[in-house]
C-alpha cells in the first residue's frame, strides 16, 4: 500500500506535496510526531546526517540527530514545556561518525484548537562560523586548514577568491596533505555554504554501485532497485559535490561526469528523463592525471573540464615552519579529548619530530601526536612517548623484521632512512608499538591508539598482523 504524502493547501490553486516543499529549503528540517518520532526530513538534513527519509521515518529523533542535547536538555521538550520556539547551539554526530556543530531551532505545531499535533526542528550547519583553530591562529587558518609557510599562505589567500566562483576545481597533492579540508573550506566560504557539502570517494565502491550512488536510479532499473534513489548529485543540489580520488573513476563514468559538467543535467539509471541539478563540483586526487591521460586511463577532455582552477598542496616536508605549528595545534586538539594536560614537547621529542620527513604528511603527524598524547603520563611529551619507528637507531633492522622486505628506492634517492617509510609501514609500526605496551591485549592497544577495537582489528588484518 502506497503511503499518502502530506500536502500543503492554500499556497496555490493545487495542493503541494510537503516533502517537495521542504526539499527546497536550504536548512535541515525535520517534522516529528508528538512522541518525537520522525515523520519527515528534508534533503538538506539527509545530506547532513546521512539518513534517508525511509530509514528515519518512525525512528525517535535522538537516533537520527544524535545530538549532545538529546539526553540532557532536549530542545523539543523545552519548546513543548514553554509553548514557544527554542534555539540552541549543539553538536550532532552524522552517519559517518563526524561531529558537526549546529544551531537547532525547535517549535511545537498546534492545530486550530490549540492541541499539540507535531514538532518542527531546523538544523543549521555552523561549521562556517566555527573557530578555525583551538589555539586562535586565525590569521594562519581557513576552516580546518592551517599553516604559515609561504606555500600554504598562498592557498589560504586564494580560497576566498575562488570560493565566489562556480568553476570546477581540481585539488592535487600527496595523500594526507589536507585536500578534504581545502575542499570543505572552499564550500564554507562560498555562497553555497548553506547548501549541502557531499563527499564521494570514487575509489571506495564497485563501478556498478558507484554509478547508482552518484547519479541515482529509478525503481526497477536493476535487480534490487525496489525504490527510487536520488543519488549524490541530486542530494548536493544548491551545494557542492566533492569527488575525492577522481583518478579512480571508471572510464564509462568519466563520460557521464563530463556530460553533467557540460549541461548540469543528470540521467539516473533506468530513467529516460534528465534532471537539472545546480551543483558545484570539486575533485581531488593524489595521482598524476596527465600521466593517466597518456596511458589512456583518464579522459583528456574531462581533465580539461575539471582543471579550470587547480590547487596543488605541497607535502609537509616542503612546508617550512608548519610542522611546529601543527604539533602545537594537534597537542591542543587531543588534550581535552583524552582528558590530558600535556603542555609541550621536551627537547629531544621536539627535535625528533622536526627532523622527520613525514611521508604520510599532515595525517601522519596528526596520528603521531594523537598517539603521543594518549601514552604520555606527564605534562611533557618525551621521546619514549613517540612511536618507536621515529627513534630507532637502525631503522631497517627492526622494520624489516616487522614488515618484511621493503620496495627498493629509486637510484637517484639517498640511502633509505626511517623517514622514507610509507605511511602504511608507519601505521603498522604504531600498532606493533601499542601491542607491545599493552602486552598483546587488543582492547588496551586500541585505547592507547585512540581507536575502536573494530578499527584496530581491521587494520591488523589489513597489515597481516593477524590472520
- CA radius of gyration is 25 Å
- Beta-strand fraction estimate: 15-25%
Distance between the termini: 48 Å
Report the principal-axis shape: globular
The low-confidence parts are 131-139, 393-421
Q: Mean pLDDT, nearest integer?
A: 81
User: Which structural class is indicated by helix and strand composition?
Assistant: alpha/beta
Biggest beta sheet summary: 5 strands, antiparallel
Can you describe this structure?
The protein has 467 residues and is an alpha/beta fold. 38% of the residues lie in helices and 18% in strands. The chain has 19 helices and 18 strands. The longest helix has 17 residues, at 322-338.
Which secondary structure elements does this structure contain, and how are they paired or packed?
Blueprint: E1 7-8, E2 16-17, H1 18-23, E3 28-32, E4 38-41, H2 43-49, H3 53-56, H4 62-65, H5 75-82, E5 86-93, E6 99-110, E7 116-125, E8 141-142, E9 145-146, H6 150-163, E10 169-173, H7 179-189, E11 197-201, H8 207-215, H9 231-235, E12 239-244, H10 251-263, E13 265-266, E14 275-276, E15 279-285, H11 289-294, H12 300-306, E16 309-313, H13 322-338, E17 344-345, H14 347-355, H15 361-375, E18 380-381, H16 395-403, H17 423-437, H18 442-449, H19 453-462
Helix pairs in contact: 6-7, 10-12, 13-15, 17-18, 18-19
Amino acid at each position: 500500500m502506497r503511503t499518502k504524502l502530506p500536502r500543503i493547501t492554500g499556497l496555490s490553486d493545487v495542493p503541494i506535496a510537503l516533502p517537495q516543499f521542504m526539499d527546497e529549503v536550504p536548512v535541515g528540517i525535520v517534522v516529528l510526531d508528538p512522541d518525537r518520532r520522525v515523520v519527515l526530513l528534508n534533503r538538506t538534513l539527509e545530506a547532513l546526517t546521512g539518513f534517508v527519509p525511509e530509514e528515519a521515518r518512525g525512528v525517535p529523533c535522538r537516533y537520527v540527530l544524535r545530538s549532545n542535547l538529546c539526553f540532557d536538555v532536549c530542545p523539543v521538550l523545552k519548546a513543548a514545556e514553554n509553548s514557544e520556539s527554542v534555539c540552541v547551539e549543539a553538536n550532532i554526530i552524522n552517519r559517518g561518525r563526524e561531529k558537526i556543530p549546529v544551531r537547532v531551532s525547535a517549535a511545537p505545531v498546534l492545530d486550530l484548537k490549540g492541541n499539540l499535533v507535531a514538532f518542527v526542528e531546523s538544523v543549521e550547519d555552523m561549521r562556517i562560523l566555527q573557530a578555525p583553530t583551538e589555539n586562535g591562529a586565525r590569521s594562519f587558518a581557513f576552516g580546518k586548514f592551517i599553516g604559515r609557510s609561504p606555500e600554504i599562505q598562498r592557498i589560504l589567500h586564494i580560497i576566498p577568491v575562488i570560493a565566489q566562483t562556480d568553476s570546477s576545481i581540481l585539488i592535487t597533492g600527496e595523500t594526507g596533505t589536507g585536500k578534504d579540508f581545502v575542499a570543505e573550506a572552499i564550500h564554507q566560504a562560498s555562497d553555497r555554504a548553506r547548501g549541502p557539502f557531499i563527499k564521494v570517494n570514487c575509489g571506495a565502491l564497485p563501478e556498478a554501485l558507484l554509478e547508482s550512488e552518484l547519479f541515482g536510479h529509478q525503481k526497477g532499473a536493476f535487480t534490487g532497485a525496489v525504490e527510487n534513489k536520488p543519488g549524490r548529485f541530486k542530494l548536493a543540489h544548491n551545494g557542492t559535490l566533492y569527488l575525492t580520488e577522481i583518478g579512480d573513476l571508471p572510464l564509462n563514468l568519466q563520460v557521464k561526469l563530463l556530460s553533467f559538467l557540460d549541461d548540469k543535467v543528470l540521467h539516473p539509471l533506468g530513467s529516460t528523463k534528465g534532471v537539472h541539478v545546480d551543483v558545484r563540483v570539486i575533485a581531488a586526487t593524489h595521482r598524476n592525471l596527465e600521466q593517466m591521460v597518456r596511458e589512456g586511463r583518464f579522459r583528456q577532455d574531462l581533465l580539461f573540464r575539471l582543471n579550470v582552477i587547480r590547487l596543488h598542496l605541497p607535502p609537509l616536508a616542503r612546508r617550512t615552519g608548519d610542522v611546529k605549528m601543527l604539533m602545537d595545534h594537534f597537542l591542543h586538539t587531543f588534550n581535552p579529548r583524552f582528558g590530558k594536560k600535556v603542555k609541550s614537547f621536551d627537547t629531544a621529542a621536539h627535535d625528533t619530530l622536526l627532523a622527520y620527513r613525514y611521508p604520510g604528511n599532515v595525517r601522519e603527524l596528526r596520528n603521531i601526536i594523537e598517539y603521543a598524547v594518549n601514552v604520555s603520563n606527564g605534562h611533557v611529551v618525551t621521546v619514549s612517548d613517540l612511536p618507536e619507528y621515529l627513534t630507532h637507531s637502525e631503522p631497517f633492522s627492526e622494520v624489516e623484521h616487522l614488515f618484511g622486505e621493503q620496495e627498493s628506492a629509486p637510484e637517484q634517492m639517498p640511502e633509505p632512512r626511517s623517514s622514507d617509510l610509507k605511511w602504511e609501514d608507519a601505521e603498522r609500526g604504531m600498532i606493533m608499538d601499542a601491542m607491545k605496551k599493552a602486552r598483546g591485549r587488543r582492547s588496551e592497544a586500541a585505547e592507547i591508539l585512540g581507536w575502536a577495537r573494530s578499527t584496530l582489528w581491521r587494520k591488523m588484518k589489513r597489515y597481516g598482523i593477524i590472520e
